[in-house]
Specification:
The complex is a heterodimer of chains A (about 110) and B (about 110). Chain A is mostly beta strands and about 110 residues long. Helix content of chain A is about 0%, strand content about 55%. In chain A, a hairpin with a 2-residue loop joins strand 6 and strand 7. The relative contact order of chain A is 0.33. Classes of the chains: A mainly beta (about 110), B mainly beta (about 110). Chains A and B meet through strand 5 of A and strand 5, strand 9 and strand 10 of B.
Chain lengths: ~110, ~110
């Protein structure tokens, strides 16, 4: 079945360092979504990318969708302690409304 | 602002007991999803509904789990009988039902089965 893989599983960075998480799908995606889950919280939608090669920015966060629409990345510049949490990517299945979620990347930031 | 609500937020029960979790989707959303999250398995889709009809419950153990939407404002997930391995956080999410649908998650129910 359709799979979405994320790496790394876990990253611990010093505050101010950059962070990147990568997402790869086994199939071409019509779109990719990113969610953030704070410790003890619930996943919260961050952004959706639709076009091949699309790049979107939200303040210090930069999201990219690959040209082949099978991979994506989230880059955080100059991490802050408020960035801690788990970042999930998710892509829709071919038919229906389901999303396939990656396993997530846990980000910890040392101050 | 509109949110998905879930009750109870925490539940501790003993093995063999029935557990019912409730979810109120965002008004106007016509898709509802139930997920289970554990450290080992991550976020697993258990079941989902569109316009109150169950579309996929392949992720759900059929012998003990059941999911229903008695009306558009209420979704339920029931476990009977519960087992210690059911201990997890259960999230409900809702969406507008479009092809590129964003999902809005509730705060979750943290279930502990002793």
């Amino acid at each position: 079945g359709q799979q979405v893989m994320q790496i790394p599983q876990y990253q611990h960075v010093q505050e101010g360092e950059d962070f990147t998480t990568y997402c790869n799908s086994s199939t071409t995606l019509s779109n990719i979504q990113w969610y953030k889950q704070r410790p003890g919280g619930h996943p919260v939608f961050l952004i959706q990318l639709v076009k091949s090669g699309e790049v979107k920015k939200q303040k210090r966060l930069t999201f990219q969708f690959g040209e082949a629409k099978k991979n994506s990345s989230l880059h955080i510049t100059a991490t802050q302690t408020t960035d801690v949490g788990t970042y999930f990517c998710a892509g829709p299945v071919r038919y229906g409304n389901k999303l396939v979620f990656g396993a997530g990347t846990i980000l910890r930031v040392k101050s | 602002d509109a949110r998905v609500t879930q009750t109870p937020r925490h539940k501790v029960t003993e093995m063999g007991q029935e557990v019912t979790m409730r979810c109120q989707p965002i008004l106007g959303h016509n898709t509802v999803f139930w997920y289970r999250q554990t450290m080992m398995q991550g976020l697993e889709l258990l079941a989902y509904f569109r316009n109150r009809a169950p579309l996929d419950d392949s992720g759900m153990p059929k012998d003990r789990f059941s999911a229903e939407m008695p009306d558009a404002t209420l979704a339920t997930l029931k476990i009977q009988p519960s087992e210690p391995r059911d201990s997890a956080v259960y999230f409900c999410a809702s969406g507008l039902g479009g092809r590129a649908d964003t999902q809005y998650f509730g705060p979750g129910t943290r279930l502990t089965v002793l």
